[in-house]
UniProtKB/TrEMBL annotation:
Protein name: MOSC domain-containing protein
Species the sequence originates in: candidate division WWE3 bacterium
Pfam families: MOSC, MOSC_N
InterPro entries: MoCF_Sase_C, MOCOS_middle, Pyrv_Knase-like_insert_dom_sf
Limits of the MOSC domain: 129-281
A molecular function GO annotation: molybdenum ion binding
Length: 281
């Protein structure tokens, strides 16, 4: 039996993830529905360099971004770094200045979130940045959608809709780490869906081509090649060492690098909940 163990949502790209009881899949990508009915895309906000408009992430030398926590309160998104700052931005889409934003090969106009977020984040990161939001009237297509001529979207994720990992893979990794005395927790991999099972082999999720969860069909698009962010403590916001990249690079990799997890797209809309059974097709 395979079932959904945890679900994660990320409000601001490269900041702290949030454990949630369910996620909704839509043509614009995975999302959550807030208590007041707002649909919030996974990674709907992103921090960008004020001068270039390029996205700013932990992998660019800012591991402290992991300490930036987010949660909804009424009609606002609260953004806070404990003992450092706290501010809010409205959940309702507001038409403000649109800034040229670059996320990998994609360029789009994103909505600036104002002076206070820019000031607080710039002070925290010690570089001039702005916080921007994906406009409600914009659909950024996933990379695999572009290749297929399809039209399923994403927020400011790297390129695909849904990242899936599993408990057998995480267990295997921690049992085979090449560095003694180290433990790598699940949050290092910043997945959307973490599958639980006691009957499958490690990395079984990477061999799945199609699966159905809660009536939603998931189609495999690519394996997930991991970056330096997996070496960052996602609670304290600092670099921990070379694991898990050292082990994955030696024992579980492809021609592009260390691999952990698989990316999927969704051909149907619906809701996935913790505890849902997984049908591998």
């Amino acid at each position: 039996m395979i079932y959904v163990g945890t679900l994660r949502h990320t409000f601001i790209k490269s900041c702290a993830t949030t454990l949630v009881p369910q996620i909704t899949l839509s043509p614009r990508g995975p999302a959550i529905i807030t208590p007041n009915g707002q649909t919030i895309l996974n990674r709907e906000w992103v921090v960008v360099n004020q001068e270039t408009g390029g996205f700013v992430a932990q992998r660019h030398g800012f591991p402290q971004m992991a300490r930036i926590q987010t949660y909804t309160s009424g009609n606002d998104l609260v953004v806070t770094a404990p003992c450092k700052f706290e501010f809010t931005v409205p959940l309702k889409h507001m038409e403000r200045e649109r800034l040229q934003t670059t996320i990998w090969d994609d360029r789009l106009l994103a909505i600036d979130q104002g002076r206070e977020p820019a000031l607080r984040l710039s002070e925290f990161l010690d570089t001039d940045v702005r916080l921007v939001r994906m406009p409600a009237d914009t659909v950024r297509l996933a990379r695999s959608a572009l290749k297929k001529g399809a039209e399923y979207g994403i927020g400011f994720s790297d390129g695909e809709q849904v990242l899936v990992t599993s408990s057998p893979s995480l267990l295997w990794l921690n049992q085979n780490l090449l560095t003694p005395g180290v433990y790598v927790p699940a949050d290092r991999f910043r997945d959307n869906i973490h599958l639980m099972t006691s009957t499958e082999e490690p990395f079984f999720e990477e061999a799945i081509t199609r699966m159905v969860i809660g009536g939603v069909e998931f189609i495999a698009t690519k394996l997930c090649v991991r970056c330096v962010m997996t070496t960052h403590d996602q609670t304290l916001g600092h670099v921990t060492g070379k694991e898990p990249l050292k082990t994955l690079g030696a024992l579980h990799r492809n021609e592009k690098g260390a691999v952990f997890g698989a990316q999927f797209s969704c051909s149907l809309t619906g809701t996935v909940r913790i505890g849902d059974l997984v049908e591998v097709c």
